[in-house]
Design goal:
Number of strands of chain A: 0
Number of strands of chain B: 14
Oligomer: heterodimer
GO molecular function (chain B): ATP binding; ATP hydrolysis activity
Organism (chain B): Natronocalculus amylovorans
InterPro entries (chain B): AAA+_ATPase, ABC_transporter-like_ATP-bd, P-loop_NTPase
Mean pLDDT of chain A: 91
CATH superfamily of the largest domain in chain B: P-loop containing nucleotide triphosphate hydrolases
Strand order of the largest sheet of chain B: 6-7-8-3-9-10
CATH class of the largest domain in chain B: Alpha Beta
Family (chain B): Belongs to the ABC transporter superfamily.
Number of helices of chain A: 13
Strand content of chain A: under 5%
Structural class of chain A: mainly alpha
Largest sheet of chain A: none
Keywords (chain B): ATP-binding, Nucleotide-binding, Transport
Radius of gyration of chain A: 20 Å
Helix content of chain A: over 70%
Low-confidence stretches of chain B: 302-320
Shape of chain B: elongated
Number of domains of chain B: 2
Mean pLDDT of chain B: 86
Distance between the termini of chain B: 49 Å
Shape of chain A: globular
Largest interface: A-B, 24 and 32 residues
Low-confidence stretches of chain A: none
Structural class of chain B: alpha/beta
Order of helices and strands of chain B: EEEHEEHEHHHEHEHEEHEHEEHEHHH
Distance between the termini of chain A: 21 Å
CATH architecture of the largest domain in chain B: 3-Layer(aba) Sandwich
Chain lengths: 280, 320
Amino acid sequence: MTWVAVAKKDFSDAVQSRSLWALSAFFILLSLGLTYGYSEFEFLSAGTETTIGGLVFFLGGIVGLFVSITSIVICYRAIAGERELGSAKLLLSLPHSRLDVLVGKVVGRTAVLAVPLIIALGLGLSIGIIVIGAGSILSAVIFLGWTFFFALVYVSIIVGLSALVSSTTKAAALGIGFFFIVEFLWDGVAFVLLFVANGFSLPTAAPDWYFVVTQVPPSNAYFSGLVALLPDVAAAVNASTGAAGFDAFYAVPEIGIVILCLWLIVPISIGYTVFSQADL
Amino acid sequence: MVAIQLDGVSKQYGSITALRNVDLTVESGEIFGFLGPNGAGKSTTIDILLDFVRPTNGSATVLGHDAQTESVAVRSKTGVLPDGYHVYDRLSGREHVQFAIDSKESTEDPLDLLDRVGIADAADRNAGGYSKGMTQRLVLAMALAGEPELLILDEPSTGLDPNGAREMRKIIREEADRGATVFFSSHILEQVEAICDRVGILNNGELVAEDTISGLRASLETDSRLDVTLENADNGAVSAAEDVAGVTSAIQDGSMLSIALTRESKYEVLAALDREGYSIVDFTTDESSLDDLFAAVTGEPRSEDHTEEDAAAAPTEVEQ
């Protein structure tokens, strides 16, 4: 397995890019701004007492959007860009399997995204802990770990998409298309699915599977997973996933963890299948 | 021991046939020149050896491993200078070579390899700022990492000035002396002629010749020409030259004798003239170049620089 060499190369390449430093600065400002806003303005804490847990869920609700957009920007060229430019020939002249290349890319780009992200959130939370002083530090640590996993999942999705095509134009279209359909417009998609499945009319009550459909977008699954990992904190700050109205065994916040794991595996596997058979 | 073996390899891109039923054997330890005009299928062949593309038909074996199913094993023993590559603009020369060394799980010092290709002084500059020739040297250094058993070099002298091309040939020879097999493609014939043990000529996706350069010459009956200037040229000198085995014709033009002959009989002719009492003032010799062979094999007039002098060297014209 030579993916370590690929990941190291990919990371040191990105570290020398100005945009990574701009991204880090942006994340830090965002995190500090959100922490400040949460601790200063009552209406942002939704009427509950300001606690670390409250800050965690406040940040969690916003981080999903930024991680999805930045991972598309950082990763859409990961494979397609190397194929388009011709550096893929340099890379694959060395004894890397195409699986090594994909795994190395996912690891390297996760580091590129997660290092500034975790540093920025860690900084924001540390200041929050000092300023607010109430609530468990453990919830902050769990939040950071779960957010790191979410960044890994999103990178894996976009690298998987990038492995499907040989031009950056197509890869960008796939990444943006994914964001629009699976994140931005998903409520509409879910609604259409419900409408069609019910024989082109609206049911009086949504069926149980509808809850699973609403959890498909990775950022929704991320938020539900956070609720599942920090149930007491979630209850205290009134963070909910919409699972309450359904009574099937799978209509629980934990479904978010399962769905995020599927997002980690499925797109990259499809990407690998296509990439491993492609002519460079 | 066979380094590269292609059996009936074909590659079809849609309706375009890039390679047609190519059989090729490269022995371990030899320097093999892979020739052909641009678009003949040289890069496609190399891409198949490295599993960049998959053959439509046939099989390729490199260093005893199947090129498709055991590609990582092939590439771990092979150093490659690919065609149409791009370097990582933001990484330094040293980082590129270190990446190759790490990937090969080797332990050399990147600076030694950069020094060998003559760009050690640029080791810490970003490769994005390198000239084309420096980039080519950098990728050669990457190819040399891990003392590969086989070097596959696709158009290695691209972007190199004459001095750089000479250094490239020197490195190729050093690698061959170390015991490595060298397989390189080129459309620049002089360079192939200078260092290859054997050559293969590819044209329109088909291998049209595979032989040593002298073997190719012999099979194509392309002769050499010897021009001798004598103090006292006469008919006797003409018949003395014609009596030597290997001479096909000798014509006198004033004090000069133009003799068409095989390469090996040149010395014999000079010795015979001397024996017969002719005193040699000067002589020049002209061999049919690989250009001529190439044109004969691929059926197209190759050289854009075919001068009148070259045309005069063609055996048929000697008879005038």
